[in-house]
């Protein structure tokens, strides 16, 4: 199987298809993942069969695939003047003359790395590449439990990507994005077990612990046992060991002071059981956390300070918003962002 097959898969199959607003982003994301996997990741026969099933499942899949192929074939220089989200919306347009002209503009505005390099539609699409190439990944709203080679368990939270490497000298889990909960297994070879982030590493010392990668730092919270934290650029002297019940954040240069795991406002580990557990949490902060599972949520400043308490199930975030509407004087409304993406706007009830 070669890249030629990627380029020739069912050309024109989606010519008469149309996309609806609810599903277009998901179809585009799936198409990007398939292209990366098939062209750049040495897909095997089972992957090609799975792709054929996906491609034939809907005319919309074939339509988006055809447009993605056309775009990828003509891209020649790095992105300069068009936001990636706007170009993505062009891909979703129907085949009108105006859409074709817009698409030509997109071809001149977007780019991929030369010589068969990775597709990079900046920000959001770079993350799609990262997720597509990770050993294990979850999409928004998804959680996943993985049994590790040593019998341990790794739980992935929403929108998370990890690589798992068990070598002769060490067991390494690289957290590329998101959040994980690790229950370490017993290794007959006594190899050290690490969770690594861009900021440093957290070595398990017979333990259960959680690691979350924030924009500005990585956070480690220990439920059982101990964890040795070491920042990437700080040297051995900058490391700290956390005991059960402790939490700390780490940048590339240092580990900040450890303290008790703070559950006064939010139980940061409740997601492992599929819940969001909060107490007197400001609505704006609650919605920001919920958006990790739901998608974009905007909170009107007029209701931002309303207090939220309770245990909310994460499997259906629309029900969470409906429940908030019952207990608070708010009105969640679905809308569109300027580039076409979906957003939920939470305002004061009239």
UniProtKB/TrEMBL annotation:
Residues 29-71 form the FecR N-terminal domain. PANTHER family: PERIPLASMIC SIGNAL SENSOR AND SIGMA FACTOR ACTIVATOR FECR-RELATED, PROTEIN FECR. One of its GO terms (molecular function) is sigma factor antagonist activity. Residues 135-227 form the FecR protein domain. Pfam families: DUF4880, FecR. It comes from the Bacteria. It comes from Achromobacter spanius. Keywords: Kinase, Transferase. The keyword Kinase applies. The keyword Disulfide bond does not apply. Transmembrane segments: none annotated. This is Histidine kinase.
């Amino acid at each position: 199987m070669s890249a030629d097959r990627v380029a020739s898969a069912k050309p024109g199959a989606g010519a008469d298809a149309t996309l609806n607003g609810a599903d277009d982003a998901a179809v585009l994301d799936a198409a990007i993942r398939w292209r990366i996997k098939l062209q750049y990741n040495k897909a095997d026969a089972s992957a090609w069969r799975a792709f054929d099933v996906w491609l034939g499942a809907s005319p919309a899949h074939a339509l988006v695939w055809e447009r993605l192929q056309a775009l990828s074939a003509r891209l020649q220089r790095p992105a300069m003047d068009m936001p990636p989200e706007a170009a993505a919306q062009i891909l979703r347009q129907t085949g009108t003359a105006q859409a074709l002209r817009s698409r030509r503009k997109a071809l001149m505005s977007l780019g991929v790395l030369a010589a068969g390099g990775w597709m990079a539609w900046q920000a959001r699409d770079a993350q799609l590449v990262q997720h597509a190439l990770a050993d294990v990944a979850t999409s928004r709203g998804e959680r996943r439990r993985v049994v590790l080679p040593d019998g341990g368990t790794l739980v992935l939270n929403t929108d998370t990507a990890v690589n798992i490497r068990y070598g002769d000298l060490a067991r390494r889990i690289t957290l590329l994005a998101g959040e994980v909960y690790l229950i370490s297994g017993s290794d007959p070879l006594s190899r050290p077990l690490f969770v690594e982030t861009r900021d440093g590493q957290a070595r398990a010392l017979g333990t259960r612990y959680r690691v979350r990668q924030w924009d500005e730092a990585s956070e480690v919270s220990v439920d059982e046992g101990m964890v040795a934290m070491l920042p990437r650029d700080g040297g051995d002297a900058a490391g700290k060991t956390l005991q059960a019940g402790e939490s700390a954040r780490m940048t590339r240069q240092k580990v900040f002071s450890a303290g008790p795991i703070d559950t006064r406002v939010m139980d940061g580990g409740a997601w492992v059981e599929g819940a969001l557990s909060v107490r007197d949490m400001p609505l704006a902060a609650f919605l920001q956390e919920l958006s990790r599972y739901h998608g974009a949520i905007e909170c009107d400043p007029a209701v931002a300070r309303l207090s939220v308490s309770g245990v909310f199930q994460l499997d259906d975030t629309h029900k969470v918003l409906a429940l908030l509407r019952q207990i608070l004087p708010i009105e969640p409304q679905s809308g569109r962002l300027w580039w076409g993406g979906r957003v939920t706007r939470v305002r004061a009830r009239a």
